[in-house]
Design a protein that fits this description.
This protein is an all-alpha fold. Helix content is 80%, strand content 0%. The protein is built from 9 helices and no strands. Helix 1 runs parallel beside helix 7, helix 2 runs antiparallel to helix 3 and helix 3 runs antiparallel to helix 4. The longest helix is centred in the N-terminal third of the chain and has 32 residues. The two termini are 19 Å apart.
Length: 205
């Protein structure tokens, strides 16, 4: 077991969870407008959806590994190219973090959980991201690849849950800080770019 790969995966996941995106911004807005509990329930829904993507990647890519190592290498190259594309999109995008929208209707906790779950599961970009991100972090030559993907998925879910929950709990302070420090968006933007490019290089070599 290569623990260095797992440690790198934890740090990469944490950096990506912190970087502004539709999911964590939505959690922030829910918590700001309707309270911390609403934000936390949304987090639970979003994170639960990751289990579906993990399962699809685990069984799909594991079958690919068994079939031919060459196709798996091609997949990792595709993943690296996709991550470089995401880095380019972030670079071309705005560094402003928009938290001005407060027109979020009040929903029951059950409805929030379902919305978070389906927001994640029905987003094809999440599936492609998991397909690009996970294969490069297989950490054992002996453990079944399906188990490795589930372990990576569990780590991804735990790390993301902790960070998203912190965003929900600290939503008031975070929103005030973002409004007062306009350059925080620039820092997080470049953090995201560095992580995407770093993982792509890791996959290439």
């Amino acid at each position: 077991m290569n623990t260095e790969v797992l440690i790198a995966f934890v740090f990469a996941t944490a950096a990506l969870a912190i970087a502004p995106g539709p999911d964590n911004i939505y959690v922030l807005l829910q918590s700001m407008v309707h309270g911390v509990k609403s934000g936390l329930v949304t987090v639970c829904g979003l994170i639960s959806g990751c289990l579906v993507h993990t399962t699809l990647v685990a069984f799909g890519v594991s079958a690919l590994i068994k079939q031919t190592p060459f196709l798996f290498t091609v997949l990792k190259i595709f993943g690296a190219c996709y991550l470089l594309y995401l880095a380019f999109k972030v670079y071309k995008g705005s560094s402003e973090i928009d938290i001005s929208s407060s027109q979020i209707p009040k929903k029951t906790y059950k409805a929030l959980f379902k919305q978070g779950f389906f927001m994640n599961v029905l987003n094809p970009k999440v599936s492609i991201f998991f397909l690009a991100f996970f294969p490069g972090f297989l950490f054992s030559d002996t453990l079944n690849s399906i188990w490795q993907f589930y372990i990576l998925g569990a780590i991804f879910m735990v790390v993301s849950f902790i960070i998203f929950s912190c965003i929900a709990v600290l939503s008031g302070k975070l929103s005030d800080y973002i409004l007062k420090h306009k350059n925080v968006g620039v820092v997080l933007k470049w953090l995201q770019i560095i992580v995407f490019v770093g993982i792509a290089i890791f996959l290439f070599f």
